[in-house]
Amino acid sequence: MKFYGWGYEDQTVSDQEIREMEAIWAKTLGIDSFDVTPAPTLEEIKIAPPRVMPPLSLAHITTVEKYDRLAHTYGSSIHDYARAFLREFSNPPDIVAYPENDGDVSAILDWCGSVDVAVVPYGGGSSVVGGVEPPRDPRYRGTLSLDMRNFDRVIEIDPVSEAARIQGGVFGPHLEEQLKPSGLTMRFFLQSFEFSTLGGWIATRAAGHYATVATQIDDYVQNLRVVTPAGICESRRFPASGAGPAPDRMFIGSEGSLGVITEAWIRLRKRPQFRAAATVRFADFYVGAEAVRALSQSGLYPANCRLIDANEAAFTGAGDGTASLLVLGFESADQPINESMRRALELCADYGGEVDRKNEASGEAHRTGAAGKWRDTFMRAPYYREHALARGVMRETFETAITWDRFKSFHADFMAAIRKAVEDITGRPGLVTCRFTHIYPDGPAPYFTYHAYGDQARLKEQFWHLKVAISAAMARLGGTITHHHAVGRDHREWYDKERPDLFGRALRAAKGVLDPHWIMNPGAIVDRSPQV
Amino acid sequence: MKFYGWGYEDQTVSDQEIREMEAIWAKTLGIDSFDVTPAPTLEEIKIAPPRVMPPLSLAHITTVEKYDRLAHTYGSSIHDYARAFLREFSNPPDIVAYPENDGDVSAILDWCGSVDVAVVPYGGGSSVVGGVEPPRDPRYRGTLSLDMRNFDRVIEIDPVSEAARIQGGVFGPHLEEQLKPSGLTMRFFLQSFEFSTLGGWIATRAAGHYATVATQIDDYVQNLRVVTPAGICESRRFPASGAGPAPDRMFIGSEGSLGVITEAWIRLRKRPQFRAAATVRFADFYVGAEAVRALSQSGLYPANCRLIDANEAAFTGAGDGTASLLVLGFESADQPINESMRRALELCADYGGEVDRKNEASGEAHRTGAAGKWRDTFMRAPYYREHALARGVMRETFETAITWDRFKSFHADFMAAIRKAVEDITGRPGLVTCRFTHIYPDGPAPYFTYHAYGDQARLKEQFWHLKVAISAAMARLGGTITHHHAVGRDHREWYDKERPDLFGRALRAAKGVLDPHWIMNPGAIVDRSPQV
Fold first, then answer.
1. Residue B154 touches chain A, beta carbons under 8 Å
2. Residue B163: helix, strand or coil by DSSP?
3. A 458-497 residues with CB < 8 A to B
4. Which helix (H) or strand (E) segment is B267 a member of?
5. A342/B contact by beta carbon, under 8 A
6. Where are the alpha helices (DSSP H) in A66-101?
7. Looking at the partner chain, which of A161, A401, A513 has a beta carbon nearest the beta carbon of B443?
8. Residue B62: helix, strand or coil by DSSP?
9. 3-state DSSP helix/strand/coil percent for chain A, to nearest 5?
10. Of A232, A443, A501, the CB nearest to B239
């Protein structure tokens, strides 16, 4: 896998694809031509020798090889890619570990605790919030990146309860591959699906394919097995329980700060047999949002309910830029969902939504037309990130959730704040767009994207200034700092403000029990001593 | 309100109703006639003077009156009623407080912390698991029962997001009454609805009306405001968030051990306009369970999906005892649900389920027929509890959740274990029945009821021996010790076994922060020092 970008070395976008995308970037940002910074090569990068060496007892599952250390230095944000393209690898992990079982993880945590080495759990490295970055904290003698890739098996499938016991390090495609013979599926198709892991999804409270009902990973977890520095914490496997505060909810979203999720029983479902997809045009984004509100409160539970504003529709090629598009989908393994779609479209029509007949006609509308086009772009997007960066094109996303009563003013003010930040910091306007990723009866999860043309020598700083200005606006305007990207190190400042102080203190005390040497992912979620 | 039974003094079941019920009990348990222990009167009861007196500063919101202390000595289990009918009130709270606002609650917690008085938060007193009982712990100088009845308002309704900000002490009917003008409803119709509170539902992880999707209170909570001894902990109001472990989930199910829930934003919905109800007969309970499994995994989301075994159907008058009944209901505020019902009945037919045409015909089937009859009995049941007890008739319920793959053997073994316990402990067979209260794609929440005829002088001991034997069987056979009745003091032993040890230790550390003097509901959830 690339140490500086998305996916494998041999998975690249073609020259043709790059030329097409360059044209879009150029048009969008008003640039004539791009200088291209070449991707870094292994040989170019100088890194310091490891500050600490693994003990002999861990030699078979650890390495201090340059490639491994470089490949575990960063996640996948543009802040990360900017530094990689600057050839800046000043804080790599000292050791990379590839444990093969719970005993290995325990042994690693034991050793790290005994010698003050920080442990950063590492799944696919897809974090866009600095979640897998080694801490810069003089209290630690070094950092070990704990790569879970060997925990890649579906251990047991329970076809009766539609659930499976799955190891935490399995990547999305390999997970589905192993489930396939059973006819069951998780269908947790987040954008990082190819290069992120089940354990990572749980640790970061990722959200998946479904726009309603089973949105966040929280709903999929039946139980957890977590290796902590204090021992193994394994919850019982029940469909539900009312016995005290839910144990799993402390670990879901703990971002590696409490332990390593090595296994979970996960709720699955049968593969859908019935599908309906449609695209609905709304002249006005806010009127489209009102239609989506009605849908969210209708009890119809669409699988897909992605309102895309006109500019985003145009940018991704899904629309012509004159209207917002609502990509609507229903699916079921049990019964035709035509009636649900009929009623959903009727609701949309109440708000002036017009069905895009081109797309509606085909039973394969979910694969073709605006929906299909949009999805291809969506899954392909991470591959373009490094090529954008190499050309000074920054693309960042901010996602949140907010109640319907506040949505309109929030959206207007937040869009304006992003536009202003882009202009202030890069000196030129960018493209700022919005779509809904998930919807709830009480509010949407809107997802904002900016494209901006930066100064190639200062992308790292510009990114960070944008991050700060836009995150501050998010906090000021009242959206949660993250709906599914997680907190990591990049969102910590605003997460700390959002989190009830007493809950933070309680969590710190809980961490003190599970991680008595405070080695687990320092900088994530809670700190050893109160923030100063 | 009665200090020894359910509801108000003037809400009694009529002599006629009692005669009818007596006949059922007599027939069920093979008894010729009952001796009736009269209900206790205030005058009969002797209690010790309070061991501690409230300070002058709290005089206006506290009392040490005998009635108030008696009325806050017990919850509503038969263990509680048995002791009340024995005139045994040896451990009443010393003080009862009726705070009117958060400041009052804080002042009470402050004072209690400073003088080592235990605080037992009290909603409607409907606990059937010893949740509101004063601890017997010599480390405390006394107990204060903190009655939340003055926190009875819906403060604010957000009709756009379909949510309301509601005080923790409001009883079910008064809550719905205040919502009514808005057209919104919570529809959280649990059996204790009349005499339990929103705060109590949250603290105990109660489950409500809906058999699928929005089952437990966990799904309704948008945010919480909790007054803890360390200060006020208030979470933000979002439709969803992925920012760290969910703060509310630590308090949901904390059973008064971490603080007092004084307010919450709660998710609501529009009143249903479309309803469909049907009753389906299954000759075999397990085949009925298979049909319910198919329904639970179909994505049809029935509002009601209550499989009632033949004996329970007969006992409640809903059936004739020859078949299990599935009471099936769909409801929607938005669209007709006939198609969902049609498909659900088709699924049932695949398993040999036969629709009870008598009930199906009427659009009002949810109010009449087996469904209506069953519901009336359900909501009325708590009123009979004290009359049963007065006649030596014990009726207890055990509820759990278990994955489908283990359900059949669990059910068979658990039913046998209850039957055996009843025979061993009372010396005669009882009636043991089962129904499903809620269903999940991965398993049902089965609910078991026994009726047993005990020795009136020893009901208290007999109840407890039954509780221990049956709970031990529950733990041994692998069901969670509670799906929605909570842990209280009565389930602590098995809860402690079920809860991951490390999570318990983490929770204890968290409690140490929120409740530094360990005054909040001692005996509930976690103890100051490890269990011995």
1. no
2. strand
3. 479-487, 491, 495
4. strand B260-267
5. no
6. 66-71, 78-85
7. A161
8. strand
9. 40, 20, 40
10. A443
**How far apart are the C-alpha atoms of A223 and A218, rounded to whole Å?**
10
CB A217 within 8 A of CB A252: yes
Pair of tokens at residue A405 = 């009563």
B326 in helix, strand or coil? strand
* Amino acid type, B217: I
B443 and A404 within 8 Å at the Cβ level: the answer is no
Contacts of A529 (CB under 8 A, 6+ apart): none
Token pair, residue B446, equals 């089965």
Residues of chain A in contact with residue B300, where contact means CB-CB under 8 angstroms, are: 334-335
Residue B88's pLDDT is 96
Distance of CA A441 to the CA centre of its chain: 23
Per-residue pLDDT tens for A9-55?
A: 887 789 999 999 999 999 999 999 999 999 999 999 999 999 999 99
Nearest to B506 among A343, A441, A510 (CB): A510
Confidence band for B381, pLDDT divided at 50, 70 and 90 = confident
CA gap A444, A427 in Å, rounded: 32
**In the block, residue with structure tokens 């042994």:** A107
Nearest Cα neighbor of B294 from B352, B344, B360 is B344
What per-residue confidence (pLDDT) applies to A249?
98
Mutate to test the interface with B, among A223, A249, A525 (most CBs of B within 10 A): A249
Whole-Å CA distances, A415 to A315, A409, A479, A480, B239 = 17, 10, 13, 15, 20
CB contact under 8 A, B244 and A213: no
Alpha-carbon distance A491 to A313, whole Å?
28
Residue B532 confidence (pLDDT): 38
Contact A297, B185 (CB under 8 A): no
Residues of A in contact with B292 (CB under 8 A): none
Interface check B158 vs A, CB under 8 A: yes
Instruction: Pick the range with the lowest mean pLDDT from A146-160, A223-237, B363-377.
Output: B363-377
SS3 readout for A188-233: CCCCCHHHCEHHHHHHCCCECCCCCCCCEHHHCEEEEEEEECCEEE
The pLDDT of residue A361 is 47
What number is the ipTM of this complex?
Answer: 0.96
Residue type at position B489: R
Quickly list DSSP for A233-266: EE----S---SSS-THHHHTT-TTSS-EEEEEEE
Interface mutation target, options B106, B162, B332, chain A, most CBs of A under 10 Å: B162
Summarize pLDDT for A369-422 with one digit per residue, the tens. Answer: 666 777 777 888 899 999 999 999 999 999 999 999 999 999 999 999 999 999
Instruction: Using alpha carbons, select from A355, A363, A353 the residue that is nearest to residue A331.
Output: A363
Give yes or no for A156 touching B (CB within 8 A): no
* Helix runs in A246-368, H state only: 248-251, 285-296, 310-315, 338-350, 357-360
State mean pLDDT over B482-496: 97
pLDDT of residue B531: 45
Both tokens of A521, joined, read 């992912």
Interface list for B 48-107 with A (CB within 8 A): none
DSSP codes joined into one string, A154-186: EEEEETTTTEEEEETT-BHHHHHHHHGGGTEE-
Q: Does residue B513 sit at the A interface (CB-CB below 8 Å)? A: yes
Nearest to residue A40, comparing CAs of A79, A10, A82?
A82
CB burial of residue A181 (10 Å; 0-12, 13-18, 19+)? exposed
Give the predicted TM-score (pTM) of the model: 0.97
Interface test with A, best of B186, B226, B334, B514 (most A CBs within 10 A): B334
